Amino acid sequence: MPIDQKRINGPEGSLPYQIFGKNRDKTFEDRLADVFDPSGKRKCGRKDTESRKYFMKLGVVSTAKGSAYLELGNTKVIVSVFDPREIPKQNKFRELGELYCDFKFSPFACTHRKNPQTDAEERSLAAAMTKALQPVVCRHLFPNFQIDIFANVLEDDGSVLAAAITAAGLALSDATISMFDIVTATTVAVFEDHIYLDPTLAEERICLEGGKRGNHGVITLAKLHTLDQTSEIRQAGDISLDKLKEACQRLNEVNNEIAPVVQQMLVSKVQKHMAEIDLEEEDEPEEDKEDLDATSASQVSVAADA
Question: Which residues fall within 8 angstroms of residue 70, CB to CB, at 6 or more apart?
């Protein structure tokens, strides 16, 4: 792999700081005890059905057509959407437009420094994000065009794909891209008989590894609220059919709770924009009146001189 000469790399004989950490020699049982107590409850104090707090903001990237910033606990994602452009290197006419999604972790987003080149995990998350957004956008209005969507993870503390999909839906709305419905996404982690809503990164790793337990894994579901349709389900791990059905029902319920928050964000954005337009319209008549008075005064002075 070529070396990036523009970056200052550490010395060749350096050692990663993780080998000096407390978690270096911990077994799976020890790491499990750090996250869950013996009864299966979370050590952080949250209930199994309790999510972390959301923070959303629109229009954070000035150079993009639309953008959104979303915080979910310590997980921080920013998504930018740009104007439709012609599909490059395309000879055939496409009746439906395309979505190009790029999913990228910042080098400082994870415990281990991310490589500048796109890796397999980022490509997999980008593909899942594309599948989740394709049923949402009115692609028939953009024939032979594509819309570029860039997701950048500033900090990864679990549920990063769900946060990126929700932020992408907000960014598409901020960019005034025609959509069938708003899209939201949520993640749950399954471990034995427990279903944990909105898992952290440590909880995700425990549930994905599973040890020698029964059900274990992570499920992410994206949903269109008004149409009541599921646009994407992503599962990793070993989960029974009954437990998967129960997890999907819980994900649907949580998505229905998040949708009004997203709708309120968009309504507030529109109301703010309309208030700015009304303020501009109020200022225009005063300026026109001042120009008219100045013109009348000049005409009177000219008549007096004559």
Answer: 54, 55, 56, 57, 76, 77, 78, 79, 163, 166, 167, 170
CA 29 to chain centre: 33
State the pLDDT at residue 39: 83
Condensed to tens digits (0 to 9), the pLDDT of residues 155-202 reads: 988 889 999 999 999 999 999 899 999 999 999 999 888 899 999 988
pTM over 0.70: yes
Q: Name all contacts of 6-13 with Cβ < 8 Å and 24+ positions apart.
A: 7/116
How many CB atoms sit inside 10 A of residue 63's CB?
7
Cα–Cα distances in angstroms (integers) from residue 242 to residues 115, 214, 216, 228, 275, in the given order: 39, 13, 13, 22, 51
Q: Which tokens belong to 61?
A: 């990237």
172 in Cβ contact with 231 (< 8 Å): no
The 10s digit of each residue's pLDDT in 209-257 is 876 777 889 999 999 988 989 999 999 888 889 989 999 999 999 999 9
Is pLDDT at 7 greater than 70 in this prediction? Answer: no
Buried b / exposed e over 112-127, threshold 16 CB at 10 Å, is: eebeeeeeeebeebbe
User: What is the Cα–Cα distance from 142 to 300, expressed in whole angstroms?
Assistant: 57
Report the relative pairing of strands 216-224 and 229-238 from DSSP bridges: antiparallel
Q: Phi and psi of 164, rounded to 5°?
A: -70, -40
Residue 18 is classified by DSSP as G
Q: Which of 125, 132, 81 is nearest to 104 (CA)?
A: 125
- Return the closest-CA partner of residue 70 out of 79, 61, 80, 62: 79
Dihedral angle sign, alpha carbons of residues 105, 109, 115, 120: negative
Q: Can you say how many angstroms the Cα of residue 145 is from the centroid of all Cα atoms in its chain?
A: 23
Strand order in the sheet with 183-191: 194-197, 183-191, 216-224, 229-238
